[in-house]
Hints:
By secondary structure, the chain is of the alpha/beta class. The chain is about 45% helix and about 15% strand.
Amino acid sequence: MYTRREFGTLTLGALAATRLKTVIAGAWAGIDPVVNGVRLGAQTYSFRDLPRTPAGDAIEPVINACVECGIGEVELFAPQVEPVFNAGARGRRGDPPSPEAVKAREELRKWRLETPLDHFREVKKKFDAAGITIYAYNYSPNASFTDAEIARGFEMTKALGAGVITSSTTLDVAKRIAPLAERHAMVVAMHGHSNVSDPNEFATPDSFAAALKMSKYFKVNLDIGHFTAANFDALAYIRQHHADITNLHLKDRKRNQGDNVAWGQGDTPIRETLQLLKKEKWPIRAYVEYEYRGAGSPVEEVKKCMAFAKQALA
Protein backbone atom coordinates (compact mmCIF):
# COMPACT_ATOMS: atom_id res chain seq x y z
CA MET A 1 0.00 0.00 0.00
CA TYR A 2 1.10 3.54 -0.73
CA THR A 3 1.18 6.22 1.98
CA ARG A 4 -0.59 9.48 1.17
CA ARG A 5 2.78 11.19 0.65
CA GLU A 6 4.02 8.38 -1.64
CA PHE A 7 0.78 8.47 -3.54
CA GLY A 8 1.07 12.21 -4.07
CA THR A 9 4.65 11.87 -5.26
CA LEU A 10 3.86 9.07 -7.67
CA THR A 11 0.93 10.89 -9.19
CA LEU A 12 2.84 14.00 -10.17
CA GLY A 13 2.20 14.58 -13.85
CA ALA A 14 -0.34 12.99 -16.16
CA LEU A 15 2.04 10.28 -17.38
CA ALA A 16 2.99 9.19 -13.88
CA ALA A 17 -0.67 9.13 -12.85
CA THR A 18 -1.63 6.97 -15.79
CA ARG A 19 1.22 4.56 -15.14
CA LEU A 20 0.38 4.29 -11.43
CA LYS A 21 -3.25 3.57 -12.25
CA THR A 22 -2.22 0.78 -14.61
CA VAL A 23 0.23 -0.75 -12.15
CA ILE A 24 -2.23 -0.66 -9.24
CA ALA A 25 -4.90 -2.27 -11.42
CA GLY A 26 -2.38 -4.89 -12.45
CA ALA A 27 -1.45 -5.62 -8.86
CA TRP A 28 -5.09 -6.22 -7.98
CA ALA A 29 -6.32 -8.08 -11.03
CA GLY A 30 -3.37 -8.76 -13.31
CA ILE A 31 -3.19 -8.14 -17.05
CA ASP A 32 -5.26 -10.92 -18.55
CA PRO A 33 -3.14 -12.71 -21.19
CA VAL A 34 -5.97 -14.95 -22.45
CA VAL A 35 -7.52 -14.10 -25.82
CA ASN A 36 -10.28 -16.50 -26.88
CA GLY A 37 -8.68 -19.33 -24.94
CA VAL A 38 -5.08 -18.71 -26.07
CA ARG A 39 -2.47 -17.29 -23.73
CA LEU A 40 -0.64 -14.47 -25.52
CA GLY A 41 2.52 -12.92 -24.19
CA ALA A 42 5.98 -11.82 -25.19
CA GLN A 43 9.61 -12.85 -25.10
CA THR A 44 11.11 -9.79 -23.46
CA TYR A 45 14.01 -10.00 -25.92
CA SER A 46 11.54 -8.01 -28.03
CA PHE A 47 12.49 -4.99 -25.89
CA ARG A 48 16.27 -5.53 -26.07
CA ASP A 49 16.85 -2.11 -27.68
CA LEU A 50 15.16 -0.13 -24.90
CA PRO A 51 17.73 1.91 -22.98
CA ARG A 52 18.45 0.93 -19.40
CA THR A 53 17.82 3.38 -16.59
CA PRO A 54 20.72 5.63 -15.53
CA ALA A 55 21.37 3.09 -12.76
CA GLY A 56 21.73 0.32 -15.33
CA ASP A 57 18.38 -1.35 -14.69
CA ALA A 58 16.70 -3.00 -17.70
CA ILE A 59 13.71 -4.42 -15.79
CA GLU A 60 11.81 -1.17 -15.20
CA PRO A 61 11.82 -0.24 -18.94
CA VAL A 62 10.75 -3.79 -19.84
CA ILE A 63 7.87 -3.77 -17.36
CA ASN A 64 6.69 -0.34 -18.53
CA ALA A 65 6.80 -1.56 -22.14
CA CYS A 66 4.79 -4.68 -21.26
CA VAL A 67 2.16 -2.63 -19.45
CA GLU A 68 1.88 -0.25 -22.39
CA CYS A 69 1.47 -3.19 -24.79
CA GLY A 70 -1.07 -4.94 -22.57
CA ILE A 71 1.18 -7.97 -22.03
CA GLY A 72 0.31 -10.04 -18.97
CA GLU A 73 2.71 -12.95 -19.35
CA VAL A 74 6.36 -13.10 -20.37
CA GLU A 75 9.35 -15.27 -21.08
CA LEU A 76 12.05 -13.21 -19.38
CA PHE A 77 15.33 -12.74 -21.28
CA ALA A 78 18.22 -13.35 -18.88
CA PRO A 79 20.52 -10.52 -20.08
CA GLN A 80 17.84 -8.05 -18.97
CA VAL A 81 18.14 -9.36 -15.41
CA GLU A 82 21.94 -9.31 -15.46
CA PRO A 83 24.33 -6.33 -15.35
CA VAL A 84 26.39 -5.34 -18.37
CA PHE A 85 30.14 -5.72 -18.10
CA ASN A 86 32.40 -3.89 -20.55
CA ALA A 87 33.75 -6.43 -23.06
CA GLY A 88 35.53 -3.88 -25.23
CA ALA A 89 35.34 -3.76 -29.00
CA ARG A 90 34.16 -6.92 -30.75
CA GLY A 91 36.78 -8.54 -32.98
CA ARG A 92 36.33 -10.34 -36.25
CA ARG A 93 34.54 -13.67 -36.29
CA GLY A 94 37.01 -16.42 -35.44
CA ASP A 95 39.41 -14.15 -33.57
CA PRO A 96 40.29 -15.17 -30.00
CA PRO A 97 38.43 -13.14 -27.35
CA SER A 98 40.12 -9.96 -26.24
CA PRO A 99 41.43 -9.61 -22.67
CA GLU A 100 38.51 -7.24 -21.99
CA ALA A 101 36.02 -9.85 -23.24
CA VAL A 102 37.60 -12.57 -21.11
CA LYS A 103 37.47 -10.34 -18.04
CA ALA A 104 33.83 -9.40 -18.71
CA ARG A 105 32.93 -13.07 -19.10
CA GLU A 106 34.53 -13.94 -15.76
CA GLU A 107 32.82 -11.01 -14.05
CA LEU A 108 29.46 -12.17 -15.37
CA ARG A 109 30.13 -15.74 -14.24
CA LYS A 110 31.03 -14.46 -10.75
CA TRP A 111 27.86 -12.36 -10.68
CA ARG A 112 25.70 -15.35 -11.62
CA LEU A 113 27.24 -17.56 -8.96
CA GLU A 114 27.40 -15.06 -6.11
CA THR A 115 24.44 -12.71 -6.51
CA PRO A 116 21.90 -13.38 -3.73
CA LEU A 117 18.68 -14.98 -4.91
CA ASP A 118 16.83 -12.05 -3.34
CA HIS A 119 17.86 -10.08 -6.44
CA PHE A 120 15.67 -12.36 -8.53
CA ARG A 121 12.89 -12.36 -5.96
CA GLU A 122 12.84 -8.55 -6.19
CA VAL A 123 12.53 -8.81 -9.98
CA LYS A 124 9.54 -11.10 -9.51
CA LYS A 125 7.95 -8.62 -7.10
CA LYS A 126 8.23 -5.86 -9.69
CA PHE A 127 6.51 -7.95 -12.34
CA ASP A 128 3.87 -9.05 -9.82
CA ALA A 129 3.16 -5.42 -8.92
CA ALA A 130 2.46 -4.68 -12.58
CA GLY A 131 0.16 -7.69 -12.92
CA ILE A 132 2.58 -9.62 -15.16
CA THR A 133 3.41 -13.31 -14.78
CA ILE A 134 6.92 -14.62 -15.50
CA TYR A 135 6.11 -17.96 -17.13
CA ALA A 136 9.65 -18.87 -18.17
CA TYR A 137 13.22 -17.69 -17.72
CA ASN A 138 15.26 -17.67 -20.92
CA TYR A 139 18.65 -18.83 -19.63
CA SER A 140 20.91 -20.16 -22.37
CA PRO A 141 24.08 -21.99 -21.34
CA ASN A 142 26.78 -22.52 -23.94
CA ALA A 143 29.98 -24.55 -23.87
CA SER A 144 31.77 -21.86 -21.82
CA PHE A 145 29.40 -22.30 -18.85
CA THR A 146 30.67 -24.21 -15.85
CA ASP A 147 28.42 -26.86 -14.33
CA ALA A 148 27.87 -24.58 -11.34
CA GLU A 149 26.81 -21.76 -13.66
CA ILE A 150 24.31 -24.03 -15.41
CA ALA A 151 22.95 -25.24 -12.08
CA ARG A 152 22.54 -21.67 -10.83
CA GLY A 153 20.01 -21.05 -13.60
CA PHE A 154 17.56 -23.42 -11.93
CA GLU A 155 17.84 -21.53 -8.65
CA MET A 156 17.37 -18.19 -10.42
CA THR A 157 14.29 -19.50 -12.22
CA LYS A 158 12.68 -20.69 -9.00
CA ALA A 159 13.40 -17.34 -7.33
CA LEU A 160 11.71 -15.59 -10.26
CA GLY A 161 8.61 -17.73 -9.68
CA ALA A 162 8.85 -19.30 -13.12
CA GLY A 163 8.27 -23.00 -13.69
CA VAL A 164 10.10 -23.34 -17.00
CA ILE A 165 13.56 -22.57 -18.36
CA THR A 166 13.78 -21.87 -22.07
CA SER A 167 17.20 -22.29 -23.55
CA SER A 168 18.95 -21.41 -26.80
CA THR A 169 21.68 -23.98 -26.44
CA THR A 170 23.20 -26.92 -28.28
CA LEU A 171 22.85 -30.69 -28.12
CA ASP A 172 26.20 -31.22 -26.43
CA VAL A 173 25.39 -28.70 -23.69
CA ALA A 174 21.87 -30.16 -23.34
CA LYS A 175 23.51 -33.41 -22.20
CA ARG A 176 25.03 -31.47 -19.31
CA ILE A 177 21.71 -29.79 -18.50
CA ALA A 178 19.70 -33.04 -18.42
CA PRO A 179 20.81 -34.37 -15.00
CA LEU A 180 20.22 -30.95 -13.46
CA ALA A 181 16.69 -30.81 -14.88
CA GLU A 182 16.10 -34.21 -13.28
CA ARG A 183 17.55 -33.07 -9.96
CA HIS A 184 15.41 -29.92 -9.85
CA ALA A 185 12.35 -31.56 -11.47
CA MET A 186 12.07 -28.53 -13.74
CA VAL A 187 11.09 -28.33 -17.39
CA VAL A 188 13.75 -27.04 -19.78
CA ALA A 189 12.41 -26.17 -23.23
CA MET A 190 14.88 -26.11 -26.10
CA HIS A 191 14.64 -23.14 -28.43
CA GLY A 192 15.45 -23.72 -32.07
CA HIS A 193 16.94 -21.51 -34.74
CA SER A 194 17.29 -22.16 -38.46
CA ASN A 195 20.91 -23.33 -38.80
CA VAL A 196 20.31 -26.78 -40.26
CA SER A 197 23.94 -27.11 -41.39
CA ASP A 198 25.26 -27.73 -37.85
CA PRO A 199 24.07 -31.03 -36.32
CA ASN A 200 24.84 -29.66 -32.84
CA GLU A 201 22.26 -26.88 -33.23
CA PHE A 202 18.57 -27.11 -32.40
CA ALA A 203 16.93 -26.47 -35.76
CA THR A 204 15.46 -29.70 -37.15
CA PRO A 205 12.71 -32.00 -35.89
CA ASP A 206 15.41 -34.64 -35.38
CA SER A 207 17.41 -32.33 -33.09
CA PHE A 208 14.35 -31.75 -30.90
CA ALA A 209 13.66 -35.49 -30.85
CA ALA A 210 17.21 -36.14 -29.66
CA ALA A 211 16.71 -33.73 -26.75
CA LEU A 212 13.38 -35.22 -25.75
CA LYS A 213 15.11 -38.59 -25.35
CA MET A 214 17.63 -37.13 -22.87
CA SER A 215 15.17 -36.24 -20.10
CA LYS A 216 11.47 -36.42 -19.32
CA TYR A 217 11.83 -32.77 -18.29
CA PHE A 218 13.04 -31.64 -21.72
CA LYS A 219 10.43 -29.95 -23.90
CA VAL A 220 10.36 -27.72 -27.00
CA ASN A 221 10.14 -23.94 -27.25
CA LEU A 222 9.24 -23.79 -30.94
CA ASP A 223 10.07 -20.65 -32.88
CA ILE A 224 7.71 -20.92 -35.82
CA GLY A 225 9.57 -18.20 -37.74
CA HIS A 226 12.93 -19.96 -37.61
CA PHE A 227 11.25 -23.31 -38.23
CA THR A 228 9.64 -21.92 -41.38
CA ALA A 229 12.89 -20.31 -42.56
CA ALA A 230 14.50 -23.76 -42.28
CA ASN A 231 11.75 -25.07 -44.61
CA PHE A 232 9.88 -27.14 -42.03
CA ASP A 233 6.10 -27.21 -41.53
CA ALA A 234 5.29 -25.56 -38.20
CA LEU A 235 1.61 -26.49 -38.26
CA ALA A 236 2.35 -30.16 -38.88
CA TYR A 237 4.99 -30.21 -36.14
CA ILE A 238 2.64 -28.59 -33.60
CA ARG A 239 -0.15 -31.03 -34.43
CA GLN A 240 2.17 -34.00 -33.95
CA HIS A 241 4.15 -32.77 -30.93
CA HIS A 242 1.80 -30.41 -29.10
CA ALA A 243 2.19 -32.33 -25.83
CA ASP A 244 5.93 -31.60 -25.87
CA ILE A 245 5.71 -27.85 -26.60
CA THR A 246 5.69 -25.33 -23.76
CA ASN A 247 5.45 -22.13 -25.75
CA LEU A 248 5.84 -20.74 -29.24
CA HIS A 249 7.80 -17.75 -30.46
CA LEU A 250 5.80 -15.84 -33.03
CA LYS A 251 7.68 -14.05 -35.77
CA ASP A 252 7.44 -13.89 -39.56
CA ARG A 253 10.27 -15.08 -41.79
CA LYS A 254 10.60 -16.09 -45.40
CA ARG A 255 11.38 -19.66 -46.37
CA ASN A 256 14.86 -20.70 -47.55
CA GLN A 257 16.59 -18.89 -44.65
CA GLY A 258 14.77 -15.68 -45.49
CA ASP A 259 14.83 -12.52 -43.42
CA ASN A 260 12.64 -11.51 -40.54
CA VAL A 261 9.85 -9.36 -41.95
CA ALA A 262 6.83 -7.48 -40.65
CA TRP A 263 4.03 -9.84 -39.74
CA GLY A 264 1.92 -10.87 -42.72
CA GLN A 265 4.73 -10.30 -45.23
CA GLY A 266 6.56 -13.62 -44.80
CA ASP A 267 5.81 -17.32 -45.10
CA THR A 268 5.27 -18.16 -41.44
CA PRO A 269 1.70 -19.36 -40.66
CA ILE A 270 1.18 -17.10 -37.66
CA ARG A 271 -2.57 -16.69 -38.14
CA GLU A 272 -3.12 -20.38 -38.84
CA THR A 273 -1.03 -21.38 -35.83
CA LEU A 274 -3.05 -19.19 -33.47
CA GLN A 275 -6.29 -20.51 -34.92
CA LEU A 276 -5.03 -24.05 -34.36
CA LEU A 277 -4.29 -23.33 -30.69
CA LYS A 278 -7.71 -21.76 -30.32
CA LYS A 279 -9.48 -24.72 -31.93
CA GLU A 280 -7.60 -27.47 -30.11
CA LYS A 281 -7.41 -25.71 -26.73
CA TRP A 282 -3.86 -26.92 -26.15
CA PRO A 283 -2.13 -25.18 -23.20
CA ILE A 284 0.67 -23.82 -25.39
CA ARG A 285 1.67 -20.21 -24.84
CA ALA A 286 2.07 -17.99 -27.92
CA TYR A 287 4.66 -15.26 -27.38
CA VAL A 288 5.55 -12.35 -29.60
CA GLU A 289 9.25 -12.11 -30.38
CA TYR A 290 9.90 -8.89 -32.25
CA GLU A 291 12.94 -9.25 -34.52
CA TYR A 292 12.17 -7.54 -37.82
CA ARG A 293 13.35 -3.96 -38.28
CA GLY A 294 10.21 -1.91 -37.97
CA ALA A 295 9.86 1.81 -38.55
CA GLY A 296 8.61 2.42 -35.02
CA SER A 297 9.98 1.89 -31.53
CA PRO A 298 10.04 -1.63 -30.05
CA VAL A 299 6.90 -0.76 -28.07
CA GLU A 300 5.09 0.45 -31.19
CA GLU A 301 6.09 -2.63 -33.17
CA VAL A 302 5.15 -5.07 -30.40
CA LYS A 303 1.77 -3.35 -30.19
CA LYS A 304 1.31 -4.07 -33.91
CA CYS A 305 2.26 -7.72 -33.38
CA MET A 306 -0.16 -8.07 -30.47
CA ALA A 307 -2.94 -6.50 -32.54
CA PHE A 308 -2.20 -8.94 -35.37
CA ALA A 309 -2.37 -11.89 -32.95
CA LYS A 310 -5.61 -10.71 -31.34
CA GLN A 311 -7.21 -10.15 -34.73
CA ALA A 312 -6.17 -13.68 -35.76
CA LEU A 313 -7.93 -15.06 -32.70
CA ALA A 314 -11.09 -12.97 -33.07
